[in-house]
Design goal:
Elements (H helix, E strand, L loop, with lengths): L1 H20 L30 E5 L3 H5 L12 E2 L13 H16 L2 H5 L22 E15 L1 E12 L5 E12 L5 E6 L1
Length: about 190
């Protein structure tokens, strides 16, 4: 029971950190996702954003079941079963935009990558993590976060993936997509962290 409490507390802290990271981007500061993930958290979570009414579609037990992919299991492509997560807010439009973006990374297709971005400053992402080394290969295999926040209004999707470098080494990692509505009221990718 003590481990379960620690696990829930850890998820709350991680959620708070992700929330602070998924805020609006500063147009003068390009966003990059080239740093390796760390299993350690530092500092206190930001308190400048207070989420209200969070609807989550992935339970903590499901996250614990996600296993890392080995070199022998690696297959370039997108292998996420999106249908098992379909709901009121994670509908075909959001799924299509997410799938399109993930496929663009696998295909190393910069034009396709830009299609569903809300903010033009996010185009600088292509110069960081995604298009820095075109020899890298990607396998997207599971979702580990899927929630909608009412305030600030956004949908956050955590994606587990493996990056295979040109030297054959692999890294299991995760990224979070933050969707917000644009000026036309349509959902699009606001941030990738």
């Amino acid at each position: 029971m003590k481990n379960l409490s620690c696990g829930i507390l850890s998820l709350c802290i991680i959620g708070a950190l992700l929330l602070s990271a998924c805020g609006k981007a500063d147009d003068n500061y390009p966003l990059y996702n080239s740093e390796k993930p760390s299993n350690k958290t530092s500092g206190a979570p930001s308190t400048n954003i207070t989420p209200k009414n969070i609807e989550s579609l992935i339970e903590p037990a499901e996250i614990e079941e996600i296993k890392d992919i080995t070199a022998a299991e690696f297959k370039k492509g997108v292998y996420i079963d999106f249908d098992k997560y379909k709901s009121s807010f994670f509908d075909e439009k959001i799924i299509s935009k997410l799938r399109n973006n993930l496929e663009s990374i696998v295909e190393n297709n910069e034009k396709k990558f830009r299609q569903n971005l809300n903010n033009k400053s996010l185009e600088s992402i292509r110069e960081g993590f995604y298009y820095k080394n075109t020899a890298d290969q990607f396998m997207f295999y599971e979702l580990d976060l899927l929630e909608k926040l009412d305030h600030p209004e956004q949908i956050r999707v955590g994606v587990r993936f493996v990056r295979k470098s040109s030297d054959g080494s692999i890294e299991n990692q995760g990224i979070t997509y933050c969707f917000t509505k644009n000026e036309k009221g349509e959902w699009g990718i606001e941030n990738i962290d």
